[in-house]
Amino acid sequence: MNKIIFSPPDISEIEIENVVETLKSGWLTTGPRTKLLEEKIAEYCHTSKAVCLNSATACMETTLRLLGVGPGDEVITTAYTYTASCSVIVHVGATPVIVDTGKDSYEIDYDAIADAITEKTKVIIPVDIAGMMCDYDRIIRILESKKALYSPSTPIQKLFDRVIIMADSAHGFGASYKGKMSGEAADFTSFSFHAVKNFTTGEGGAVVWRDREGLDNDEVYRTYQLLSLHGQNKDALAKTRLGAWEYDIIEPYYKCNMTDIMAAIGLGQLNRYEGLLARRKEIVEAYTKGISSDTVSVFRHEDDDRRSSMHLCLVRLLGKDREFCNEVIVKMAEKEIPLNVHYKPLPLHTAYKKLGFDIKDYPNAYAMYENEITLPLHTKLDDEQVKYIINNFNEVVSSLG
Ligand SMILES: Cc1ncc(COP(=O)(O)O)c(C=O)c1O
Fold first, then answer.
1. Residue 289 C-alpha to ligand 1 middle, in angstroms?
2. Are 395 and 334 in contact (CB under 8 A)?
């Protein structure tokens, strides 16, 4: 049996050939392949446009800047996530408002959102954990019930009459909710194409947004380009056209563009993506069948309204604590099976403690973290490996009592 790896990239000859062709093409940085990937992502997500950048973090931070969110503003997110959902709020100088998860849920506590909204709240960042989209209709209803408090301060914020939803769908590329693709439900949605994600460009990410009356998609696209490429009014390709050397710097902005080498990988992945998702689903079904019991709960990747992108297999050992789960992780490592934990809630990390957050205020997120273990879930796993993981997991858990 081949060695089991927690989350290796699935790279085929198609991606390799695409990259080689790009390297030979003479054009490496943002150019025709990035533009093509953007078009294909927009088509896939049923949006008018997409912007590819070098990470989901860059997509989210740039979106906050595009919206004009900054000092004095508050942005809501959830405790049960990776730091990037919250660090971007700090990067733009706004104040993070971290909300607990719902009871027995990895999703933000919908009932707590209304109370977290103040006159300073500009944006909410729900997180589509494991690729399962949040209940966006419910979030919209909550935001609408609080729209009297919404105080927009930039022209783009004024196009909204309620707090703006910027989904962190780093895990959720290809997920759907009530027949809408991830990207069609929130106002803005960011995806991660990091090496461990379902769909990778090595590092990378994309942001898409919903059409909105008054929102000029071309202007939004242009602003993302400025924000991600030094505030320069011409990209590298435009500058190389004969005689077109001159450019202006509109503002001293940032640098987080996607290269055509990355986009070449993404174009290959997109061709194969439906097959990759189907294989993930098979593995999730095998885990669910092989592991779930009265005391072991396997994350549900599908319900009546939603189908996730099956990014992570989150398992809870009900009634157990972190110490027990860590022992399981060690015993499984002895059998050469790498496990992981998603996530240590933000208030347990030094950076967020320093900002004044206290895990005591997040009992639900803590309860989810306390007995969570993540199993390997990726398309390089074969059936024999999946069976080996299931058998050993059941054995280890029952041997530790
Ligand atoms: C929930 C979540 N949000 C954001 C990110 C950041 O993605 P990227 O590495 O592409 O910036 C990650 C990365 O793991 C993540 O898990």
1. 29
2. no
Beta-carbon contacts of 205 under 8 Å, excluding residues fewer than 6 positions away, are: 52, 53, 54, 55, 56, 57, 58, 59, 170, 190, 191, 192, 193, 194
Question: Contact at 8 Å (CB) between 55 and 204?
Answer: yes
Task: Tell me which residue of 45, 46, 91 sits closest to 69, measured CA to CA.
Answer: 91
| For residue 245, pLDDT beyond 90 | no
pLDDT given at position 113: 98
Nearest atom, ligand 1, residue 342 CA: 16
> Rounded to two decimals, what is the model's pTM?
0.97
295: which DSSP letter?
S
3-class secondary structure per residue, 312-372: CEEEEECCCCHHHHHHHHHHHHHCCCCCECCCCCHHHCHHHHHCCCCHHHCHHHHHHHHCE
Alpha helices (H) along 125-240: 136-145, 217-228, 236-240
Q: Using DSSP bridges, classify how beta strands 95-99 and 74-78 pair: parallel, antiparallel or unpaired.
A: parallel
Average pLDDT, the chain: 97
Specify the DSSP element, H or E, that contains 190.
strand 188-192
Let me know: does 45 contact 184? Beta carbons within 8 Å. Answer: yes
How many angstroms is it from 190 CA to the middle of ligand 1?
A: 9
Surface-to-core class of residue 257, CB atoms within 10 Å of its CB (0-12 exposed, 13-18 middle, 19+ buried)? buried
Closest ligand 1 atom to residue 129 Cα is 1
